[in-house]
User: Which sequence fits this backbone?
């Protein structure tokens, strides 16, 4: 199991709750922020940790990036 910090854990839990389990079901940072009830900086910190550990993938979209869980933990 991957050891996650508190921000990354909350972001991951919010993403699971939103069903972000494939590229087709990706969500924006704002959608994750709303679900997690966290600030933008905390969301970005959590997302970067998850991306660095290979748990989450980021895909560029026309207006904003989307995120999805690539490796469930």
Assistant:
């Amino acid at each position: 199991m991957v050891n996650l910090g508190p921000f990354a854990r909350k972001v991951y839990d919010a993403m699971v709750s939103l069903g972000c389990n494939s590229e087709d079901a990706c969500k924006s940072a704002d959608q994750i922020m709303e679900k997690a009830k966290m600030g933008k900086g905390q969301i970005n910190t959590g997302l970067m940790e998850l991306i660095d550990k290979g748990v989450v993938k980021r895909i560029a979209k026309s207006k904003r990036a989307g995120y999805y869980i690539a490796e469930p933990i």
Notes: The longest strand covers residues 56-59. The chain has one domain: 6-69.
